[in-house]
Write a structure and sequence with these properties.
It contains seven helices and no strands. Helix 1 packs antiparallel against helix 2. The protein is elongated, with a radius of gyration of 22 Å. The chain starts with 8 loop residues before the first helix and ends in an 8-residue tail after the last helix. The model has no long low-confidence stretch (mean pLDDT about 95).
Length: about 120
């Protein structure tokens, strides 16, 4: 087992190739342990060099609505009126602090995601 830190794209490609080779190794074997360590090293490299950005607030709301099978009308109490919900989801109006608090609770989303700035469409 020759495991090294992943510092370059070449190291990363080699690690991915090796992980693919040993991915299905039986648990408790040297190869299985190597796959676990390689997985951690690859994950750290990807976090550093290929971070996945969190969605903007409106996308986060829409994703959570889909996950929870909610319709726009289901957010009237949190946002304040059917028209207001439509304006928010269509990026015609910004979220207020009260809306952020209500949506964070209702949708179980981090307020940190909801307070990020996003573009308003005219």
């Amino acid at each position: 087992m020759d495991i090294r830190l992943i510092k370059t794209k070449d190291d990363y490609q080699q690690a991915l190739k090796r992980l693919e080779e040993i991915f299905d190794a039986p648990i408790g074997t040297v190869e299985s342990d190597e796959a676990d360590v390689l997985g951690l090293l690859i994950d750290e490299y990807e976090k550093k060099y290929h971070p996945i950005e969190a969605p903007d607030p409106i996308e986060a709301i829409k994703i959570r609505m889909e996950e929870m099978q909610l319709k726009q009308r289901d957010l009237v109490d949190e946002i304040g009126g059917k028209n207001r919900v439509s304006e928010i989801l269509n990026r015609k109006r910004k979220l207020t602090l009260e809306m952020v608090r209500n949506l964070a609770t209702r949708l179980n989303l981090s307020a940190a995601i909801l307070i990020k700035d996003y573009q308003i469409l005219k």
